[in-house]
Specification:
This protein has one domain. It has a two-stranded antiparallel ribbon. The chain is 62% helix and 6% strand. The N and C termini lie far apart (50 Å). It is globular and about 55 Å long. The mean pLDDT is 84. It has nine helices and two strands. The protein is mainly alpha-helical.
Length: 178
C-alpha cells in the first residue's frame, strides 16, 4: 500500500483514538481545576496555569510513539518512527519533540500529503516514518508495563507542561471576554 495513504490513515486513527483516550482525564482534571478555582477565588475565571494543568493529558498524545516508535495506529497500519541517521526506533525525546506540532494537526496532514515520510515534527526531531510489520494493538501493553520513570521522563513532562502553559496563554490572550 502507498505510504502516503498509510501515513494519513495512521494520523487520523491516532488523532481520533487520542482524543477519546484523553477526553476522560481531561474532563476530570478540568472539572477539578474549575471547582478549585470556584472555591478559592469564587469565580470561574480561567488562568493559563489552570488550563495547562487541565491539558496535561496531552502528554499522552505527545508521547504516543514512544514505544519502539509505534503508536497504536502505527502498529495497526504497519508504520514506525525511526531516527533519520541510524534508522533505529526513535527515542522518547524524539517522539516528544516530533509530536509538539500536534496543535497544528491540519498543517501536518497537508505536509504529509506532499511529503509522506517526513512532516514538520519529523524535521524538528530528526526522524522519519518507515513501513514496518503490522502488530496487534495489545502488543503495546507489555511495553507500557515495563516503563520506568527516569530523569528524562520528568524533564519531558516539565517541558510538556510549560509548552501547554504557553499554548494556553496564547489561547487566553485571543479568547474574547464576555
Amino acid at each position: 500500500m502507498n505510504i502516503r495513504l498509510l501515513r494519513i490513515a495512521s494520523m487520523f486513527l491516532d488523532h481520533v483514538s487520542m482524543i477519546f483516550i484523553m477526553m476522560i482525564p481531561m474532563i476530570l482534571i478540568f472539572g477539578i481545576v474549575m471547582v478549585y478555582i470556584l472555591l478559592i477565588k469564587g469565580t470561574f475565571i480561567l488562568s493559563a496555569g489552570s488550563m495547562a494543568i487541565a491539558s496535561l493529558p496531552f502528554m499522552i498524545y505527545f508521547l504516543k510513539d514512544s514505544y519502539r516508535g509505534k503508536s497504536v495506529a502505527k502498529r495497526i497500519v504497519g508504520l514506525q518512527v525511526v531516527d533519520r541517521s541510524s534508522l533505529k526506533p526513535a527515542n522518547s525525546l524524539q517522539c516528544f519533540v516530533r509530536n509538539l506540532t500536534i496543535p497544528f494537526w491540519l498543517i501536518e496532514v497537508f505536509i504529509c500529503l506532499l511529503s509522506p515520510r517526513i512532516r514538520l515534527g519529523d524535521l524538528l526531531a530528526n526522524t522519519k516514518v518507515i513501513i514496518s510489520e503490522k502488530e496487534d494493538i495489545k502488543s503495546i501493553w507489555p511495553e507500557i508495563k515495563k516503563t520506568k520513570v527516569s530523569k528524562l521522563t520528568i524533564l519531558i513532562v516539565l517541558v510538556g507542561a510549560l509548552y501547554c502553559y504557553g499554548l494556553s496563554s496564547i489561547y487566553l490572550y485571543f479568547l474574547p471576554y464576555y
